[in-house]
Amino acid sequence: MRAILMAGGSGTRLRPLTCNLPKPMVPILNLPIAEHIINLLKHHQITEIVAALHYLPDALRDYFQDGKDFGIQITYYVEDEEPLGTAGCVKNTAELLSETFLVISGDSIADFDLTAAIIFHKQKKSKATLILNRVNNPLEFGVVITNDEQKIVRFLEKPSTSEIFSDTVNTGTYILEPEILEYLPENTESDFSRDLFPLLLKNGEPMYGYIAEGYWCDVGHLEAYREAQYDALKKKVKLNFPYVELAPGVWVGQNTHIENINNIQAPVLIGDNCRIGARVKIEAGTVIGDNVTIGADANLKRPIIWNGAIIGDEAQLCACIIACGARVGRRARVLEAAVIGSLSTVGEEAKISTGVRVWPSKKIESGATLNINLIWGHTVQRNLFGQRGVEGLANIDITPEFAVKLGSAYGSILKPGSEVSISRDERNVSRMVTRSLIAGLMSVGVGVQNLDATAIPIARTVIPIMGITGGIHVRAHPYRPDCILIEFIDGQGIKIPQAQEKKIEGAYFKEDMRRSQVQEIGDVAYPNQVVDAYCSAFEQLLQIDTIRNSRAKVVIDYVYAVSGAVLPQMLDKFGADVVVLNASLNKNFVSTLEREDLLNQLGRVVEAVKATFGVQVSANGEQLILVDELGMPIRGEMLTALMIDLMLTSHPRSSVVVPVHASSAVEQIARRHDAKVTRTKVNPTDLMEACLTNSNVVLGGSGETGFIFPQLHPGFDSMFCIAKLIEMLTIQERSLVSVRSELPCVIYQNLSIRCPWRVKGSLMRYLVDTHPTENLSLIDGVKIYQPYSDNWVLVLPDASEPIVNLYASSSDRYWVEESLKDYRQWVQAFILKEQEQYMAEI
């Protein structure tokens, strides 16, 4: 059998270790990852190997050459141009693959029984067999679910936290029949997990998952790299390395001199030709490469030291990584999770703080303390984008320097001469960040349409009208007053796709930004009549005469937000009788407690002036809370049900879109009006995309996030919602009190449980395994239905916290309370059991 070794990865998340070295050549126990993989293949009698290369291909070719010294026959396929993806490059080697072949990732450590997997593949007569493994935290991997016959029925590439429905993941090792390559186009970028496997599943080709026992670690980031070393030392994985075990758990290479071996705590590995000075303390978990010199009285607490490094007297290294040829001076300290790149120098008595990364060939002066990553004088974060965009502490994480670089990274993935809009809320910190973003965009030749302080619904509406590439909106985070949220919007007005986010991250982390010549610097324009364009689109979707004749009186609390400058003129134009509260702009954030006080004030005013209803606008024009004519607030699930009832009364036999955790009142209301309900993930972006892509949708969203009217734009818009409410209440001759009294009686409750990140995947798999498939929905989390009713319980992992949320919905209060009680006990018992097992293992 022939194996394809996928060894083209650049290992961005392993930088600075991979600045001068491809990811498969990064050493584990002093041997490249690729060599450990080849040893595994040889152990299972696979000696014909094709190595697919792209990034720094000479490093691997120079090391293995023709493979004879390693007992294999190796040939090389190099992608000189843009990489074609995992499947695309294998397609280009199709002429070498006339029989069953194996594809294996070049950046993981494993000791699977490949022979057993191959036998399984042949017994099942499979066209594609994925070797699977169970992991504690499947967030960064492709999750796979199989049936009782181990046939693949579903998989999801790199799920979000709430999408985890199994802890069985794709290891990047496949056994394939050559005919499946016919599904792939020539010279076209394609991926096994994203493109080929879903196509095979769709076409009914036999695909199986072989759940392999043994060890597997995807060495995808620095923490995983360190853990793989420690696991290998503890013999959790079977690896070969050419050193003699001088004492139990102490492996030492040839021609190595150690002053006092009694100062070494097993397990430890020390390479060839090393010099370990007097009184050096080496703690368990330390890995030392070849040709390393350690000065006297040094203290090594689990560092990983590569070949040729020099460590000075009395230096202290703690769970860090020292790359090839680096020098650490006398009494210098390199703290936990820090990385010193190849050929860099840390001066005497210098301190490298926890988690700091130093790129290759840098020099830290004696006595200096380095608290930030040293690349070109800038800091680096691991990930930029969260669920809604880029977020962080105002003027701590999101600084002017950060914003300039982020703007340059975004502009660099666009064509020179492109135009984007910039908008913000009214806060001074948002003004600061937008100006920095503008500078970054201009520097790479991108023009800016500066909308200044503008409600986000207006920005979403005018971007498609202006015909520009996209936009950026900066505002205070809706739920965290000390944080800034930077949202990137595409040309249709919704969040940019994840692929574009990855491109921005790539440009940012690699500092791969273009620099425009002086005459190509981008321009800044301040477009006129932005609000008029929004109002024009707004008017076309309303029955203006109905609003004019409604005699409605509405009390609106603007909570000192920027939307207060926009909404009054629109409602005045429509002839509505409006009482305005708190319309002046306030550059400080309004706390949750202050907002509740304002809501109580709003209720009293509504009662006093005998208004039709009141509304509190928040989240820079996206969200709202209603107050009925009796002064009672309407929010959350009741607001969701009320808006859906009003919209479907006006538009029967249409569609609505709600998140998976919205109450079952939605379906009950939809049945009254012969309407369709589409459920989506809780993520607001999925709500927007579903409203845009599904047909006949008249409303999307929920009381928590706001409401979408896709005919206007695909974002949340409280301003249009207010006008639409006036129209619908007038036409239907109803009041909010009467609408609320007609809503289905549905009990809806939720609670949260602390749950470690590593347990979430196994918890979701446990729930899937212990409930009948026909009673489950896996849109987001695990939703368990009671047959022949609208009763359900949803177990939903939180996307950003070590928490699992439980939701229950039913017409029966007792059923809801008992179900939440039972599932809370089940989940807590499972978490406790997993924690005890984890503690026993360590």
Spell out the key features of this protein.
842 residues, alpha/beta, Spore Coat Polysaccharide Biosynthesis Protein SpsA, Chain A, UDP N-Acetylglucosamine Acyltransferase, domain 1, Alpha-D-Glucose-1,6-Bisphosphate, Chain A, domain 3, 5 domains, 8-stranded mixed beta sheet, 21 helices, 54 strands, globular, nucleotidyltransferase activity, repeat, phosphoprotein
Topology:
Layout: E1 2-6, E2 27-28, E3 31-32, H1 33-43, E4 48-53, H2 57-64, E5 73-78, H3 85-91, E6 101-105, E7 108-110, H4 114-123, E8 128-134, E9 142-146, E10 152-157, E11 168-176, H5 192-202, E12 207-211, E13 216-218, H6 222-233, E14 244-247, E15 250-252, E16 257-258, E17 268-270, E18 275-276, E19 281-282, E20 287-288, E21 293-294, E22 299-301, E23 304-305, E24 310-311, E25 316-318, E26 321-322, E27 327-328, E28 333-334, E29 339-340, E30 345-346, E31 351-352, E32 357-358, E33 363-364, E34 369-370, E35 390-393, H7 400-412, E36 419-424, H8 428-443, E37 447-453, H9 456-466, E38 470-476, E39 483-490, H10 498-510, E40 524-525, H11 530-540, H12 544-548, E41 553-557, H13 567-573, E42 577-581, H14 592-609, E43 613-618, E44 623-627, E45 633-634, H15 636-650, E46 655-659, H16 665-672, E47 676-680, H17 684-693, E48 697-702, E49 706-708, H18 718-732, H19 736-741, E50 747-754, H20 757-769, E51 776-777, E52 782-785, E53 792-797, E54 803-810, H21 813-841
Parallel strand pairs: 1-4, 1-6, 4-5, 8-12, 15-17, 16-18, 17-20, 18-21, 19-22, 20-23, 21-24, 22-25, 23-26, 24-27, 25-28, 26-29, 27-30, 28-31, 29-32, 30-33, 31-34, 36-37, 36-38, 37-40, 41-42, 41-43, 46-47, 46-48
Antiparallel strand pairs: 2-3, 6-11, 7-13, 8-11, 9-10, 14-15, 35-39, 38-39, 43-44, 44-45, 48-49, 50-54, 51-52, 52-53, 53-54
